[in-house]
Amino acid sequence: MGFNVLSLMQMVGGLALFVYGMTTMGKGLERAAGSKLEKTLEKMTGNVFKALLMGMVVTMVIQSSSATTVMVVGFVNAGIMTLRQSVGVILGANIGTTITAQILRLDSGGGLGDNLLLQILKPKYLAYVIVLAGVIIMMMAKKRRTRDIADIFSGFGILFIGMSIMESAVAPLADLPQFSQLFAAISNPVLGVLVGAGVTAIIQSSSASVGILQALSTTGAITYAAAVPIILGQNIGTCITAFLSSLGGSKNARRTAMVHFYFNLIGSIVFLIGIYTLQYSVGFSFWEAAIDKGGIANFHTLFNVGCTLLFLPFTKLLVRLAEWSVPSGEQQEDPLAKLEPRFLTTPALALEQAQRCIADMGDAAKQNFQVATEPLFSGSVPNEDAFREHESFLDRAEVEIARYLTNIHNIRSVDQRRQTAEMMHSLSDFEKIGDYAQNIFERVDEFRQAGLSFSPAAMQELHTMCNAVGEALDLTVEGYVTRSVSVARTVEPVEEVVDTLKERLKSRHIARLGAGECTMQIGIHFLDIVHDLEKISDHCSNIAIYTIQLGEGAEEFDTHEYAKEEYKSTAQFAEKLRYYQQKYLTQIDAVPSKA
User: Fold this and answer.
1) I want to staple 485 with a disulfide (CB 3.0 to 4.6 A). Which of 71, 440, 551, 594 is the partner?
2) How far apart are CA 537 and CA 439, in angstroms?
3) CA dist 487 → 240, 318, 426, 479, 571 (Å)
4) Quick one: which of 26, 39, 99 has its CA closest to 67?
């Protein structure tokens, strides 16, 4: 029977099984390796050789150079890996991806005789036994790790079953002269590279496209002359996944994709020139001979290892090419780019990135507090553009970080669940600090435009309270960023002093009103600013207590009960309270009651 529609359907189905098996096995291996796989990749990039080794190992484990490159693009986009560090990983990933083709060559027939037992040991028959073992393990599994092992078995078996189905489907092509003519035409190096790149770009997997080529090679109609340019093109086509992954990312994420592209493009050009120069000058005796699965696997490995050795001394050149291709420009990077969707399946990384973004919220809130309060005492015009930019970031960050935290998968540990809860609380409080800073900004601006002014006594009182709240905010952000319980403990005593300052300032203001030293219009602005300052201090206290509770392993986050009953009863709190009372309340006492 010749090659027909049913054969085509069988081939497509075999390809689907092949890709599914490869993906299932890769994910099972990745999960079995644990969430530390990405963390290890992140840390072991200190020099190019360590990075190369890690890129190679990770790609062998997850069976996909595209997945490794996408992971690296995510690291660079999130700012936890530099562009230079990414180069070594990409070089290693290109070596690691050759393992799939080498595994598939195990089924290159012959050498086992007619003995039934030996025939069963051939991968295309053993695959069914392996799938059966995987299914049995899956049915009996009670733990997630055991199910991951089942996925490894099942995926490995399905991979070979898919390859076997593809080989059976394409077998009739050996009798078609048109098929041989097609690959004779593809022997043209440019056309062969384009075909290899196009097919790989469509299915977004060089391992799968090499697997298709290996299946077609069983017909005996594909020569080395046809296969070599196709394999080179396949390495170029696999870059499409990294390109797509980098879209919408930072400039360095796009540069990382370009490093991957230049590695394969320049390497392919060098190999094409070298191979065809030798072929036309010396000649290869095997050039027009049929290539088998082993030959395809070997050339694929030769290309990637050769390119890696070629580029190792020139990694800086790859970086420069990428930087030239994606110029810096003047566009500012989005701080929320750290919220990498690729990390959602790795809670440790995802939570770390979210924590960094919330720390950015703290810095933005601090800056807006300074922009809002400084004009009170300097008489300068506030930087409204900078203020609006920070406020917009705080509003957007609250929504996007909360959404990111709720989408994190596989959070199993109690510590990670507690960390997630703490972050949900803290990001809301940081955003509210920004809101109260905005209130102060608008009141001060309105006050300035109306040509009003506070009395010297009122100015001194506000200055003291702003200093106290500013110190509380500085300590809050420092404690949050460093996860320091000792620093966070110093916030609550300052907050207590701010509460006292609020009451004293209100009393002194009422006294000035009664003495006719202040107008009602000015007094409203004064009291509103005092109220907003005290609210900022309250939210600083909340964040600090979350930091303390997280550090001490509290099961729930209860700011009121914890603050009033546990910490306030300690000698440390009393000592710090006396210190801040001396620092700020004495300043108020020294201010004359009259303007």
Assistant:
1) 551
2) 14
3) 48, 44, 16, 5, 16
4) 26
Q: Is 489 helix (H, G, I), strand (E, B) or coil?
A: coil
The residue type found at 389 is E
Q: Is the pTM of this model over 0.90?
A: no
Distance separating the N- and C-terminal Cα atoms of the chain: 106
CA distance 277 to 493: 79
Report d(CA 369, CA 529) in Å as an integer: 12
Q: Six-digit token pair at 335?
A: 């701080």
**Whole-angstrom distance, CA of residue 183 vs CA of residue 170:** 14
Query: Alpha-carbon distance 40 to 50, whole Å?
Result: 11
Other C-beta atoms within 10 Å of 446: how many? 11
> DSSP class of residue 339?
S
Structure tokens at 197: 């790149």
- Reduced to 3 states (helix: H, G, I; strand: E, B; else coil), residue 266 is helix
Residue 113 in this model has a pLDDT that exceeds 60: no
- Alpha-carbon distance of 359 to 481, in angstroms, equals 6
Rounded to the nearest 5 degrees, what angle is found at the Cα of 345, between the Cα atoms of 342 and 350?
70
C-alpha of 209 from chain center = 27
As a whole-number percent, the residues of the chain with pLDDT over 90 amount to: 19
Backbone dihedral angles phi then psi of residue 530, each to the nearest 5 degrees: -60, -40
Whole-angstrom distance, CA of residue 229 vs CA of residue 200 = 13
pLDDT tens sequence across 494-505 = 999 999 999 988
d(CA 240, CA 440): 50
Tell me what pLDDT residue 44 has: 55
Beta carbons within 8 Å of 262's beta carbon, 6+ residues apart: 318, 321, 322
User: Tokens 């959070």 correspond to what residue?
Assistant: 411
- Confirm if 442 and 510 have CB atoms less than 8 A apart: no
Which of 6-10, 31-35, 224-228, 286-290 shows the lowest per-residue confidence on average (mean pLDDT)? 31-35
d(CA 374, CA 368) in angstroms, rounded, equals 10
Amino acid at 283: G
